[in-house]
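Input.
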Amino acid sequence: MTSKDMIGDEYVQQVRTFGALDYTPQRICRLLGLSKTASVQLMLRLEIPGDVYHDAYRQGHALGEYNIDAELAKKAETGDVDAITLLEERKNERRERDLRYELFGI
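Output.
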């Protein structure tokens, strides 16, 4: 394995950004132009709690969710019924996802 196939921490900020856009790990690897070996390494690191890539991806994803919710909340404050409904649905889905992750790691 050559050093060009090894993945360091040079993609952390990009992974955070891609996480905010809810991109899959496979899409992130393609966008970064990683070799097959580096792609496997990144996908594994994305699954390891405490790894810098795992944390960056989850932080990015949470930030993306927050940004959507903030925009919906602004619309809901003006009385937009669809925004109110969607915001409530997103809250319920998030609670369920968070609980599933907390209990089962999925």
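The CA atoms of residues 97 and 106 lie 8 Å apart.
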